[in-house]
From TrEMBL:
Classification via Pfam families: Gate
NAD as UniProt keyword: no
Keyword annotations of the record: Membrane, Transmembrane, Transmembrane helix
Family annotation (InterPro entries): Gate_dom (IPR011642)
Occurrences of domain Nucleoside transporter/FeoB GTPase Gate (ranges): 172-261
Record flagged with keyword Transmembrane helix: yes
Name of the featured protein: YjiH family protein
Segments passing through the bilayer: 41-60, 90-107, 127-145, 166-188, 216-238, 250-267, 279-298, 365-385, 405-427, 439-460, 472-493
Amino acid sequence: MTELKTINLSKNKDYDLSQLDLNDPKVLDSIELDRRDWTMGAIKAFIISAIAIFVFFVPINGGIPFGYIYQGAISIVDSLIVINGQAVGALLLCTIVLMSTGIASVIGKFFSKKESKLYKYFEADSIIHPFLYLAGGIFILLYFLNKIGVYSAPEMIVGPSTGEMVIPGVVIGVAFIIPVGAFFIPFLTDYGCIDFFGVLLEPLMRPLFKTPGKSAVDACASFVGSTTMGIIITSRMYRGNIYTEKESSIVATCFSAVSVGYALLVMETAGIGEHFIKTYFVSFLLAFILAAICSRLWPLNKKRDVFANGKVQTDEDRKEASLKFGPSMLKAGVNRASVRAHTSGGMFKRIVDSVVDSFPVLPKVITLLCSIGILGMIVAKYTPVFDIIGYAFLPLTKLLGVPDAQVAATAIPTGITEMFIPVLTIADKVAQLHIKTRFFVTVVSMVQIIFLAESVVVIMNTGLPLKFKELMIIFLQRTIIAMPFAALFMHILF
C-alpha cells in the first residue's frame, strides 16, 4: 500500500495545492491541520453541507427547496414579458436561445473557419446535429407564436401530447435547472458533504453497485430532485476525476431516477395516486435491484476503470477508499470533510466557476431536448412504430400474467421517448384497465430511466463516456429485467 508524505497545511500555508490530487481519499487523509484550522474547516463543512442537504433533499409541501427555487426563477422571468395576456418571459428567452443555436450550428458546422470559436463549439457534433438544432429552434418558435395567439401552429408540433408536454415541462425546466443547479452544486460537492457520506456508504455501494459511496448522494438527488440534476452532478464528478468512466456510466444510467413530485403526477395520471407510497417504494427498490444487475452486464461492465484525466483506478485505490465499519468510518468522514472544506477556499469563486462552466452546455442540451423530445412524441402518437414494437413485448406480458397484455406491451416501449409517455398511452383507458395493468406500466416506466426527451440528451451533452447505441441497449436491458419484478409486485400487492 502506497504511503504518502504527510503535509501540514497549517504550517505550510503557501503550499501549492495544485500539486495534490484532492479527489484521492489517500491524499485527503495525508493532510494535517492544526486544531484551529481543523475546527474551522469542520464548521465550514457542516454549515455548507447543511445548506446543500436542505436545498436538495428536504421535502417541503411535496417538493424540495431546489424545485421551488428554479420554478420561482421561471415564474419571475415569465412575468417580465406579457403578450396578449400570456406571461411568456421564460418561453421567449428559450425561443431566442434555441433559434440562435440552430442558426449558429449551421454556420459553425458548415461555413465557419476551422480556427473560429463557433466552429470549435460545434466541432464534436455529427453532421446530423445542425438539423436537429434547427428543428428545435423551429419547433419552439411555432410553439411561442401559437402561445401568444399570432399563428395557429400544427397540432402535431404544439399539441398537448407533443410540444405542450416537452417545451414547458422539459425544455424550459432544464434551461433553468442547469444554471440554478450549477449555483448550488458546489455546496454539495466541494465542501465535504460528498466526502462525509461517501465514507459511510462505501461498504454498501461498492460491493452492490460497483460505485463509490459518494454515488448514493447522486441517487438521492435524482429521487428527490430531478433526473437532469442527478446527471449534471454525475458529469461534474466525472470531469473532476472523482468518478471513473465505469462509475460515472453506472451512476448516470442506473441512478438518475424519477423524482418524487414527478412520480406522483405519473401515478395520478394512471389512476393509482391513492397507492402512491407502495408504488413509489416498489419503484425505489426496483431501481436499486436493476442497478446491481445492469452494472454487471455489457456495456457497463466493460467500461474502463479510468478517470477523465487518464489515471487508472487500481484495486488498491478501491480498497483504500473503503474503511472497516465502525467509529473509524465516522472519524475519517468528518476529517475528510474538514480537510475538503479547508482546501476548497472561498465559496464565491467556486460558485462563479460552476455557473460559468454550465453555460456552454446549456444551449445544446435544451435545443436537442426540444427537437428530439417532440420528434419522439410525434412518432409515439402519430405513427404505428411503437404498436409494432409492442408485439415483441406481448409474449412477455402474457407470460407474466399482466391483464390487458396487449395494451401494456404497446405502452412499455414508448418509454424510450419520455418517461411519461407509457402512462399517457393508457390515460384515456384508465377506467377500463385493470389496476394491475396500470401499476405494471407505471412501475416499469419509472425505472426505465433512459429516454430521448431528457436523460439521453443530457448524458450525451455533458461529457459522460456513453454512446447512443450503448444507451439504447441499457434501456432495453432495464425494460426487460424490470418487467418480471414489476409483475411479481403487481401480483403480490394487487
